[in-house]
Amino acid sequence: MLRSTLAVVLGFIAVTLLGYAGQQLFAVILPEQAMPGTSLVTVAGLMVLAFEALCNVAGGVVTGMVAPRRPVKHAAVLGAIETLLVLWLSASLLEHSPGWLAVALIVVTLPATVYGGRLAERFRPVADVMPEGPPALIRREF
């Protein structure tokens, strides 16, 4: 139980730190003079969406690697928590960005985090992923 909680907390910290680093990076890279309605705002929104999706994948990987078993389930828990936070923060997001970005972030968060858990499942030893049976009898195909 403690390791499961630690896995979700560490994944949350990873998503938060990567997200903060991305905000700082975008503040330097993207010009602040972009006016709403221009194509640059759309490009910037797509960049933010892609980066946030990568942050959630990374959080799912961290959670899945630390989880004692069932890495995808642990990543899904993290994804659900992240989705609830994105829902809560979407009101403030709507004031500063296009409406489609808030909706896209809500839609992308859970699948991206679960995908990270699936990636972690691939890189874990077979005995960790499927604890049933002796490791010599377990065969994984990719």
Summarize the structure in words:
- The protein has 142 residues and is mainly α.
- 78% of the residues lie in helices and 0% in strands.
- It is built from five helices and no strands.
- The chain is elongated and about 45 Å long.
Defining traits:
mainly alpha; 5 helices; elongated; 142 residues
Topology:
Layout: H1 2-29, H2 39-66, H3 71-96, H4 99-123, H5 126-129
Q: What form results from the Cα inertia axes?
A: elongated
Q: Please state the average pLDDT score.
A: 81
Task: Note the total helix count.
Answer: 5
Strand content is under 5%
The computed structural class is mainly alpha
Rounded to the nearest angstrom, the distance between the terminal CA atoms is 30 Å
Largest sheet features? none
Helix-strand topology string: HHHHH
Rg (CA only): 18 Å
Give the number of DSSP strands. Answer: 0
Low-confidence stretches: none
Specify the helix fraction band.
over 70%
Offer a quick outline of the entry.
With 142 residues, this protein is mostly helical. 78% of the residues lie in helices and 0% in strands.
